Amino acid sequence: MKFLSNNRVDTLLSFEVNNLGKVGHAEISAAPLTIFIGQNNTGKSYIASLMWALANINGISKDSWPRWYKAFISKSKSNQGSSLEIDRKKIEDVINVVQAYFDENCESFLSRVFAYDGFETTQIKFKISDDFESITAAIDVSEIQYDKATNKVVSGSVSKASGNSVIRVRFPRNTPQAYDNIGGRLFYEIIGMALYGSTWGQYRNPIYIPAARTGLLLALKALVSNLFESEDEAPKFPMPLAEFLQRITWPPIERKTAQSEVARWLETNVAKGTIKPSDDLTPNYLYFSEGSDKAVPMHAASSMITELAPLLILLKGRGVGTHIILEEPEAHLHLSAQRYMARAIARLLNAGIHITLTTHSDTFIQQLNNLMAMYERKNKETFLNQKDYEDSDLINPGDVRAYEFRPTKSGTSVVELKRENDGFAVPSLNEILINLADETISLMGS
């Protein structure tokens, strides 16, 4: 098993935000596993949604492109192709363009993302990813055969210093504004490389799996149909939620991938059965208990099944890329099932999936702490055999960052937690547990 890093936390996406919902101030640096911990209604979902949005920065006008990038597009158009190395100095110009866009358009950008107005005082500040290395953008013209005809296409790519292509896109050369279209798409990718560094390919196209999944799944057909109503009649959905609803209704073609293996493992050990789609255009989902061929509709299944089902559906199909933003993975799970869910998080992480999760469960955090402790244990193999764990169940502490959302009188304070020998300790949750224990002892004594 190859782990992602060793004894250090890689800094990938880094940003600072002020006045977002209840969050007064937060400085976030993402890691392969980023954990947002805290009580209800402290702003965890706001920051998680912002993580989704920052992988979807579109709409920056070509008028805002740096002069050297405009010159590159112009030269490509004149010469039918060109290439450009983008070093750290140039990428600073790109970050400045992104910053200027958000300084002017932060309110409207977030209003679109969250589907309501209320971000007049929100500010977001960006920095270049520590993981950034020089990249090369290239545009060329080539010919392709299609239906016995030869057609010219304009191709664009962004490549790492190693020569590996991050993205390659094509437009027919006779398409109006073909070079500007290519330029806009490549600039989006260059922004991603500036913010995320060489890990951008893993963060592109994240999937947001929200809390309260039962209600969304039971009302799936009605909600999806409303997405396509006229603008005046359709209810407003936050963009991450709307995309989640659309992805969960994609044609349910099961694939054999590392993600689908984790889904089937969860079905065996937690669901004790299988989730299958109906044959409808917008599918209903059915639960088949282990050893039974009787279909149970979601409205008749337990809350554990309906909360777990969306994750299983997306992992087994085409709905999950390499970044999952998962709210409350412990929801409606018994403690024994939560332990399997923590191991599933580890298995996804070790399969190369980056995960951002929100939780307010101290026991779920403790299980993640245990999986990190096992990773560092000297007699690891013997311990794993005794406890029936596998290498893929372990979490390298160097791949994890955790943030506590602490309620205050003026809003929420977001603090990065330092991992101690026993793992991440969460003061705001521990205080509640201590108070509960003191109260219980008092009642027993009386």
Automatic annotation (TrEMBL):
Residues 14-132, 272-365 form the Endonuclease GajA/Old nuclease/RecF-like AAA domain. Gene3D superfamilies: P-loop containing nucleotide triphosphate hydrolases. InterPro entries: AAA_GajA/Old/RecF-like, Bact_Antivir_Def_Nuclease, P-loop_NTPase. This is AAA family ATPase. The lineage of its organism: Bacteria, Pseudomonadati, Pseudomonadota, Alphaproteobacteria, Hyphomicrobiales.
